[in-house]
Design brief:
This protein is an alpha+beta fold and 198 residues long. It contains nine helices and five strands, in the order ββααβββααααααα. It has a single domain, classed as Orthogonal Bundle (hpI Integrase, Chain A), CATH 1.10.443. The relative contact order is 0.18. It comes from Halosegnis longus.
C-alpha cells in the first residue's frame, strides 16, 4: 500500500492504481454491481452514501471538456442540504458502467447501484478481505474502508497528478480549502523522484 496511517483512532489507507484494480477485480468476482460501486468511489471520488444516487439520467458527455461527468447529490461540506455536483468519470469507468447498465436492464431513472450505504461499505470490506488472503501484508488490506477509496482518489489526483485544488474541490464536492486539506498527503517516493529529477 502506498501509505497507512494508524496513528489516530481510525486507520487510513492509500491505495495505488494497481491496488484499486485488485479491489475492483475482487468486488467483480462477487457481483458486477459491487465492482461499479468500488469504481465510483475509487475512480470518480464518490462517497459511500453517494454511490446509490446516479444512473444513466445523471451521466453526460461534455463537448467543452471532452470528458464524462456524472451528477452526484452528496454531502454539503459547509453544512445544510445535500449539494449537487458534477463528478468527473474516466472513460474506462464510463464504458464499464454503460455496459453494466445496458446488460442489467437499468431504466433511465434507475440508479446503477441499488444498495444501502452500509451494504456498499460491507462490499468494500469483503473485497478487501479477499485481496488480503493472497497479499504480502494482509493486515493492511483488512483495514481498507470505503472512505479509503475516496482518500486514495483525491490524493492520487492532488499529489501524484498535481491536479489543481479548485478543480478537485469542484469534482469532489468540497466547499472550502479546509475540507480538502486533509487529502493533501505526502507524495510517494516515485512522485518525489519525478519532481526532483534534473
Amino acid at each position: 500500500m502506498v501509505r497507512v496511517d494508524d496513528a489516530g483512532s481510525v486507520t487510513k489507507c492509500w491505495l495505488d492504481r494497481e491496488e484499486l484494480g485488485q479491489l475492483e477485480a475482487a468486488a467483480a468476482r462477487a457481483d458486477w454491481e459491487r465492482e461499479i460501486a468500488v469504481s465510483l468511489m475509487g475512480r470518480c471520488g464518490l462517497r459511500a452514501d453517494e454511490v446509490n444516487y446516479p444512473g444513466d439520467a445523471e451521466l453526460r458527455w461534455s463537448d467543452d471538456g471532452e470528458c464524462w461527468f456524472v451528477e452526484v447529490r452528496g454531502k454539503n461540506t459547509s453544512g445544510g442540504d445535500p449539494k449537487l455536483r458534477d463528478a468527473w468519470v474516466p472513460e474506462t469507468a464510463q464504458t464499464n458502467i454503460t455496459r453494466f447498465s445496458r446488460e442489467r436492464g437499468r431504466e433511465t431513472g434507475e440508479s446503477w447501484v441499488q444498495a444501502s450505504k452500509s451494504s456498499i461499505r460491507r462490499w468494500v470490506k469483503e473485497a478487501a478481505e479477499e485481496v488480503a488472503q493472497d497479499a504480502a501484508q494482509p493486515e493492511r488490506w483488512r483495514e481498507v474502508s470505503s472512505h479509503d477509496l475516496r482518500r486514495s482518489w483525491a490524493t492520487y489526483h492532488l499529489v501524484e497528478r498535481q491536479v489543481d485544488v479548485r478543480t478537485m474541490m469542484s469534482v469532489g464536492g468540497w466547499s472550502d480549502y479546509s475540507a480538502i486539506e486533509p487529502y493533501l498527503a505526502e507524495p510517494t517516493e516515485g512522485r518525489i523522484g519525478d519532481a526532483m529529477r534534473v
